[in-house]
Amino acid sequence: MDEDSELLKRGRRDPKAFRALIERHGPYLYGIAHTLSGNAADAEDLVQETLLGAIRSEFRGESSVRTWLVRILTNRAAMLRRTRRRRPEAELKAEQAPPSAKDAARAVDAKVDLAGMLDQLSIEHRQVIILRELDGLSYEEMAAALGLPRGTVESRLHRAREELRRRFKGY
Asked: What CATH number labels 100-171?
């Protein structure tokens, strides 16, 4: 049993073990959650829900603990999106802060541009781009995290890259 699996097992009864697991994977999960949700508050909620889900669920060891946590996170993010679709558009716009890239440094501008580009992709394409290009997961890790066959992940990634090239060829 690897160290993460042991921490997860012990974390159900030992707060120190669970804290170690959070410290190890929390920042990584937050980065993915923030990219998927688009804001810090939702990202924090998603990470908390992911960790609660991990404690309540049974880890079967079919993948790494990190991949399993990413899968829980992507499922929670999908539930959040479904909930948001039911809410009125005006309420959603009130929650979103307008980007203020006017006086920001180039790095901030690029980050805003990237976020805007990702927002224009379908959720399936956005997920594979984020997991592969921003988080560096392998195809196998992506397939496990998304619950899809590797071939589906590869074809989605190919289509996502093509869509980005087509939409932003002048960028």
From this structure: 1.10.10.10
Given 3.30.390.10, 3.30.420.40, 3.30.499.10, 1.10.1740.10, which CATH number is that of 1-97? 1.10.1740.10
Place of tokens 């998304």: 146
- pLDDT band of 127, cuts 50, 70, 90: confident
Q: Tell which wins on pLDDT, 92 or 15.
A: 15
Average pLDDT value for residue range 91-98: 50
Domain boundaries, the chain: 1-97, 100-171
Q: How many CB atoms lie within 10 A of CB 52?
A: 12
- Tokens 């479904």 -> residue: 82
User: How many of the other CB atoms lie within 10 Å of CB of 45?
Assistant: 15
Q: What is the pTM of this model?
A: 0.59
What letter would DSSP give residue 13? Answer: T
Find out whether 26 and 69 touch, Cβ atoms under 8 Å. no
Distance (Å, rounded) from C-alpha 30 to C-alpha 17? 19
